[in-house]
Design a protein that fits this description.
The complex is a heterodimer of chains A (650) and B (409). By secondary structure, chain A is of the alpha+beta class. Chain A has helices spanning 2-16, 69-96, 98-101, 107-128, 134-151, 157-176, 179-182, 197-203, 208-213, 232-241, 243-248, 251-262, 264-274, 289-292, 303-310, 317-323, 350-357, 362-367, 380-388, 397-402, 419-431, 441-486, 573-578; strands at 30-31, 53-63, 492-505, 508-515, 521-528, 534-535, 551-554, 557-560, 567-572, 595-596, 608-618, 622-633, 636-647. In chain B, the strands form three sheets. Chain B has a twelve-stranded antiparallel barrel.
């Protein structure tokens, strides 16, 4: 029995030995990288006290479900390239303060102009103070034209000579109609342009015989005067001898001018008109005074009469008659011209000839090229511009050097505004030996230093602008590339250029969205910054750069997700259409433009457009706003796409 | 992926369904019956690979999470393409992994097998073994991201890409990789990875053993039998279940040889060949690339035949009834064959060739001598056997204890 019990016990153990034993696995961990936290919602858009608004621009691409992965990859890379290019350019402009220092009209250009003017003034002052005799100067200048014209293109000396002669004639017209000349007393006959004096002498201008031939009683009109006198009759007498007078004016006008020049009273009135003497104006209506003069009595438009005469297009005769004294009304019909069918250089008005020869009218100069100076850094146009150009009725360098007014206080160094011209001044002055005296060693050293400074600034300006151009070329290239990719078949339903602007003013965060070129309709949304709530009642802030006439469309929703940093901006399809989301055909030309294949009016109108955007900064320089665009019906996504905006200073 | 521990229970039991604990040419005398209760308890967490190395039982769950897995979980076609485009723009591949799943899988197997045998003649004994299984498994899955995941997330957050919200979305997905894996399993008709247990009948073995030669020094016996597919088969929708049967009929034949070194000490050798008949069953059409998002289909299959061989030295002392023994056994199973397209077939047939070798030792007691002398009222035998695996290929790493109690009447 003992063995039997043992057997039963063993059997029981045998059967029960597996009971209550269950598999038990060891708990396993989940180990995932800790994600860096997103930026604070407060700092979204980087808006702070110093920057109250950011205007983003860029593109939105609504993708086609049939898009190839390779095309999507190219589009993604193009967007990144574009952002990178813009960021690098922004970084460069911020680093160099390009807008302030290197843009046209920036500090560098202003500095350059200032230093050049200072240098020029310094040189002029030093040269002017030299004891070079005025008669020697005059003789040198007078001999210039002969030598210079002989140096012009050898095979066409006659053409060059003809152009110079027409120009010299035109300069007589110019001085004769000059307001300052008309009222100034001179010790000697002022030269319209000293460089033309050899021509005037050869053609017999300003000679006593000539005035007697024209029946003028005072044949000594051009003689010098120790006490000083006006030289109007002398100049107008020479005008009568010019080719423009006889070739272009009608007989009637020629007679009218001749009669004015021969009549003391009329000539005096005429000169008063040209110098804007208030006594000769008598207004048919009091308000007409405002046509000519400002309220403080200063002349409103110096060119009102003189330039009309000079251009031989004196079309303001009615205005002239409304404002002139009745006895002087005849002046208003002085310049009736013959109208030739084919205009040659000889048929140009004095003003046109001057503009061509002084390099101011490029179109005409192309048609009638002025004589050039081979192997020289300065052209004749440069020399004539520097010496002879009068800005409005100011004096010219010629006047400063050679005129001898009784009161010389009005004679100032002409203001050369053109930076490239200032660069040439020294060469121009060297082109007329004997007119300007040489600088002392000490002054020359100072000039050298100043020139080095100018060169350094100019080099910096040029090289920085070239670098900027390279950045800009890359930006342009990446943008063009993105458009090229966007046009690939089946990639996108739309490639839209759009804008998104946010501003933080008066306790509100405003978001404006509009299609490029449709700024008159803008979708607006506002957040109360203190509560974070969407404001339904909100209007455009004029400081955000929108016209009050702009049509405002309120967005349905505008929110900031604190956890993800995503900005959500929703608006319904009706509003989208009103804001310019309209079908637009693809460009057929080489230059690609935005397009929209979808007709939103045919999509279920209970749908809406939703932008989910994320602000960011590339290279610590460029604010960007990128993300997604959806067309949704409720929560169902009908279309989806990508958005890439960046700060464009809008 | 079919059950990752599918063969464990069957494999363990199959090698233990002989009539006695240690093989011998012994048969029952005519008219004598015998009931034996055999109990096997084992727990395993490891198995051997195709090179014989030891790997976790959960090794098939050690899967990389690839970008393509993330992409395929997106419902929007366009979003899938956008992710793919982003990867391409960074020079990454869909097959790059962002992390790895790993797991601990524990299997507890308890088997009770009543074996009934009957001496038809003094040379012929017939028997049947009816195993009952009580099995449980438990699995715990872990997940760890890798450097690629870090690069991926950081790239999304980089100023130039500026997709912080996508980084957060991806991070959430990676953090929830395990729940998402379970979701994916469910979406594809699988049971989620969790505890599992079952009790049920295994494949029933029928055996006839014939004593061919019965000399004083040499004894030879043969056996012939078959296994009926009565046990539950592997559930293709359950990754951690255990099969109680292999789903088809088996036919086997065995040859025993005993050489007596003394009247109570003998040396046994045996060899057994099992033919596994072809059949059909439902399987997952897994491939090397995809093991979850696959269809189920009914496939013809033929499990590899088996060869078992072993030797042992056994001693029984009549005076005390004590039995001791020690031996070695070897088993081998040839590759399975499936009728399927090549990439599915390769995966189903992969690592199905198995091999294992065990040392074993036995301590037992028999009352038969005492019963014959009238000193014991019940003729019975009991034994406890310990098996230790010495080597194996593609087999569970199982050292186990087997307890036998046999009563004769």
């Amino acid at each position: 029995m003992k063995l039997g019990s043992l057997a039963i016990l063993f059997l029981s153990f045998n059967i029960l030995s597996g009971c209550g034993r269950w598999a038990n696995a060891t708990k396993q961990p989940t180990d995932v990288l800790i994600l860096p936290e997103q930026g604070e919602t407060e700092s979204v858009f980087s808006l702070k006290s110093s920057l109250s608004s950011i205007g983003y621009g860029g593109t939105m691409v609504i993708l086609n479900e049939k898009a190839e992965v390779s095309d999507l990859t190219d589009l993604l890379l193009a967007a990144q390239d574009s952002r990178k290019a813009w960021a690098e350019m922004k970084e460069f402009t911020a680093e160099t303060r390009y807008d302030e220092w290197y843009l046209e009209g920036g500090f560098h250009e202003k500095a350059l102009l200032l230093v050049r003017k200072d240098l020029q003034n310094f040189i002029s002052e030093k040269k002017k103070n030299s004891n070079l005799d005025i008669e020697v100067r005059k003789a040198s200048a007078k001999s210039w034209s002969i030598e210079e014209i002989n140096n012009v293109v050898a095979e066409d000396v006659e053409k060059s000579r003809k152009m110079i002669s027409l120009y010299c004639d035109a300069k007589i017209w110019e001085l004769a109609t000059n307001a300052q000349f008309s009222k100034t007393l001179y010790h000697s006959r002022p030269s319209p342009l000293m460089l033309c004096e050899e021509y005037y002498e050869r053609e017999g201008y300003f000679l006593q015989e000539h005035y007697l031939d024209d029946g003028l009683q005072d044949s000594n009109v051009c003689a010098s005067s120790e006490v000083g006198k006006r030289y109007g009759r002398c100049l107008w007498g020479a005008v009568i001898k010019t080719s423009q007078f006889s070739r272009l004016l009608t007989k009637e006008s020629q007679e009218a001018i001749k009669s004015i020049v021969s009549d003391d009273s009329l000539l005096d009135g005429f000169e008063r008109v040209l110098s804007f003497d208030a006594d000769v104006f008598e207004y048919k209506k009091p308000s007409y005074s405002r046509l000519l003069f400002k309220t403080d009595g200063s002349v409103k438009n110096w060119n009102a009469f003189s330039e009309g005469i000079l251009s031989l297009q004196f079309k303001s005769s009615a205005k002239c008659m409304w404002t002139l004294r009745e006895d002087l009304e005849g002046i208003c019909t002085l310049t009736k011209v013959n109208q030739p069918e084919v205009i040659s250089f000889e048929d140009l008005s004095p003003l046109e000839v001057i503009r061509v020869m002084e390099g101011l009218d490029i179109d005409l100069a192309r048609k009638w090229p002025y004589p050039n100076r081979p192997e020289s850094s300065v052209g004749i146009d440069d020399i004539l511009y520097y010496f002879a150009h009068r800005d409005n009725h100011e004096n010219s360098e010629n006047d400063l050097l050679f005129h001898e007014p009784v009161d010389a206080s009005y004679l100032q160094k002409p203001d050369v505004k053109n930076s490239s011209m200032l660069e040439k001044v020294e060469s121009i002055e060297d082109s007329i030996p004997g007119v300007y005296s040489q600088l002392s060693m000490e002054d020359a050293e100072k000039v050298k230093e100043q020139k080095l400074l100018i060169r350094d600034i100019q080099d910096d300006l040029d090289s920085t602008r070239k670098r900027y151009d390279r950045y800009f070329d890359r930006v342009t290239h990446t943008s063009e590339e993105a458009f090229e990719i966007g046009y690939r078949p089946n990639l996108a339903h739309a490639f839209i250029e759009a804008r998104f602007k946010v501003s933080k003013r008066d306790g509100k965060l405003r978001a404006y969205h509009w299609i490029k070129g449709y700024k008159e309709s803008v979708i607006l949304a506002c957040l109360d910054l203190s509560t974070g709530e969407n404001l339904q009642e909100c209007s455009i802030n004029p400081r955000d750069g929108f016209d009050e006439s702009s049509k405002v469309i309120m967005a349905d929703n505008f929110s900031l997700d604190a956890e993800t940093g995503v900005v959500k901006f929703d608006f319904d399809l009706d509003n989208a259409i009103a804001a310019g989301y309209l079908p637009k055909e693809r460009s057929q030309s080489l230059i690609k433009d935005s397009f929209l294949d979808l007709d939103l009016s045919k999509i279920d109108q209970n749908s809406h457009i939703s932008l989910e955007l994320e602000p960011g900064i590339v290279n610590s320089a460029l604010e960007i706003l990128s993300g997604k665009i959806f067309i949704k019906k409720g929560q169902e996504i009908l279309e989806r796409g990508v958005v890439s905006f960046w700060d464009q200073n809008l | 992926m079919n059950s990752i521990v599918a063969c464990t229970a069957v494999s363990i039991l199959f090698y233990s369904m002989s009539l006695s604990a240690f093989e011998s040419t012994t048969v029952l005398p005519k008219g004598i019956r015998n009931i034996s209760i055999r109990t096997i308890n084992t727990e395993t967490k490891e198995k051997s690979d195709s090179n014989g190395g030891i790997i976790p039982l959960a090794d098939p769950l050690y899967k990389p999470l690839k970008f393509k897995n993330i992409i395929s979980s997106e419902k929007s076609v366009l979003k899938r393409k956008e992710i793919e485009a982003f990867l391409k723009s960074e020079g990454w591949s869909k097959n790059d992994s962002v992390g790895d799943f790993f797991a601990d899988l524990d299997a507890q197997i308890n088997v009770w097998a009543p074996i009934v045998s009957f001496g038809v003649t003094d040379k012929l004994t017939m028997g049947v073994a009816i195993p009952v299984y009580s099995v449980s498994t438990d699995v715990e899955v872990g997940f760890r991201t890798n450097e690629m995941a870090d690069r991926f997330l950081r790239k999304l957050q980089s100023p130039l890409v500026n997709r912080g919200s996508s980084a957060i979305e991806a991070h959430t997905k990676l953090t929830n990789a395990i729940p998402r894996l379970n979701e994916k399993l469910e979406d594809n008709g699988y049971r989620t990875l969790k505890k599992w247990s079952a009790i049920g009948l295994g494949d029933i073995t029928f055996l006839s053993k014939y004593l061919v030669l019965n000399e004083s020094k040499y004894k030879v016996a043969t056996a012939l039998g078959f296994v009926a597919p009565t046990g539950r088969v592997d559930d293709p929708d359950n990754l951690t279940d255990l099969a109680f049967g292999d789903g088809q009929w088996d036919l086997f034949s065995q040859l025993y040889f005993d050489q007596y070194l003394s009247p109570k000490l003998f040396f046994n050798q045996y060899v057994k060949y099992t033919y596994q008949a072809p059949s059909k069953k439902i399987v997952r059409d897994k491939t090397a690339d995809e093991t979850i998002e696959v269809e189920k289909s009914k496939r013809s299959f033929k499990l590899g035949d088996k060869v078992d061989a072993g030797f042992s030295v056994q001693y029984e002392q009549d005076q005390t009834g004590i039995k001791v023994g020690a031996g070695f056994l070897y088993n081998r199973k040839f590759s399975d064959r499936y009728d399927a397209r090549s990439e599915v077939r390769d995966e189903l047939q992969k690592d199905t060739e198995k091999e294992a070798g065990y040392w074993k030792a036995m301590l037992g007691y028999s009352s038969l001598a005492a019963f014959r002398k009238g000193e014991a009222k019940i003729p019975f035998m009991s034994s406890i056997e310990y098996r230790r695996q010495m080597f194996s290929v593609n087999s569970p790493k199982t050292d186990f204890t087997q307890v036998d109690v046999r009563v004769f009447f």
